[in-house]
Amino acid sequence: MKREVIITDDGSTTIRIPEWDENYHSTHGAIQEAKHVFIKNGLDLFKEHEAVAILEIGFGTGLNAFITFLETIDKKKIEYVGVEAYPVVPEEILQMNYVSELQANQYQDVFNKMHSCDWEKQQVISSNFHLTKRKQFFQDIEDKNKFDLIYFDAFGFPLQPELWSEAIFKKMFDALLPKGTLVTYACRSSIKNAMLSVGFSIEKLPGAPGKREMLRATKNI
Question: What pTM, to 2 d.p., does this model score?
Fold first, then answer.
């Protein structure tokens, strides 16, 4: 299946799949979407925590992981698990401009290591950032009471509605620790209802530029 690298409105890159009419990030801005959804409305809830365990659903280009690394340098310990069924190939990673767009050239080696390191075992990216990449279908996730925060960044509902189902969100609910949080760019009634049905408490929040709303779900037990 053909994939192409495109520039989004904030100058950062993403990958587009023309056959599906789908992009890995918002065309209104890949970096600004990641910062708004996953950092501002997710990670920032844990400012007082010395350590945060994060599960990312859709590791993709590594943008969310890299921004999380930048946001937590010398601040807290991060245990990061990224799940991806179809990893991005090295040739595509070389075309991603996140390091320069984030003015983080001194951490180019960190971004490279996130993609070059082995899958299926924990990697020490830095003294306070440990990364485990799992090549896995989301339906096969079986983690229990393990994560403080989930970045839910799957392809959109119209393309893969099965990834936004009650069954998947039950897995997410089970994977979170009590009081754990899930954030996603999406805000569709069927998604909200699936979350509610498995026990999540839901908040509608202002969306990233170009999107009216997003969802934050909390495991209030």
Answer: 0.97
